[in-house]
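User: Could you check the structure of this?
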Amino acid sequence: MTRWSPAWDGLQQPRLFMDLSMKAAWSWWWRQRDGRFDTCGGGFTLVELLVVIAVVSVLAALLLPGLSKGKQKAQGFQCLNNHRQLALAWRMYVDDNQDRLPFASEDPRRPETAAAAWVTGYLDFDPNNRVNWDPALSLHQSPLWPYCANQEAIWKCPADRSFVVVEGQPRPRVRSMSMNVYLGGWGGTDGGWGPAISDYRIYRKMSDLHTPGPVWIFVFLDMREDSIDMGNFATRMAGWPNQPQLYGFYDLPGFYHHQACGFSFADGHSEMRRWRDARTMPPLVSGGLVHDTFASPHNPDVAWLQMRSTRPVTDHSQQVGPR
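Assistant: Sure, the predicted structure tokens are below.
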């Protein structure tokens, strides 16, 4: 990836203004050295002060956008690192549990499935819902927590600033990561959704991922604050693979990193995906919930998600596409 450099290579204007400010400073120093002071006591003249202020203002205007982009890139790198750490915890759990995958969510109809769900609870903006802001009630109860080295931060994208106000104090929400629902489903089932989910593979073991292969199945993604709720992200598979007029969403992915979203995959790698269609990124509803279930025909972002979520139960091919 292209790295931003504060040196501003290739831009001549900042260097020109810096040269002018240096010349003004040297001019003032030489006048002091030679004893040629003005009647005001030998400081800058009003014109010189205005020139320096103008130069500093122009430099700030040129540099600050670059600094902001640099910060956003740093957050993107940290987000990918969080994904790698969380995916590693997921894989260590699988290796210690006879190849069994944790559930993306518990099945509410069977409370006993909660113990094997990667995370439980429902996020919203209700301050009385402690799951929003108390990691002891959600993160620390996860079967993945023993593999996380007590790192609460890896459960959240650093660019997600969402919070709830509890007794007058803002408290950050604990999670922005969600799991691919086709990894374990709701307690190993389709959650009552029927063919919309059950017609597609719900992977229960790591060895099941041979179709289409671990490199093609995402485990976690960062979700937008107004769409995240349970621990899963459900890709709407309608239209796969050649009926794009049926594409749509059940949940919306994050777009915190210059319209891009962080993903981690079952083979251990993580990556950023920049979305191409504005319908994937409706305006953020701060402190509330966005309408995230809608049709989105011919949306290339839906096709990208479908390719990396699951395959039809009847599909035994290794159908893949460009990464």
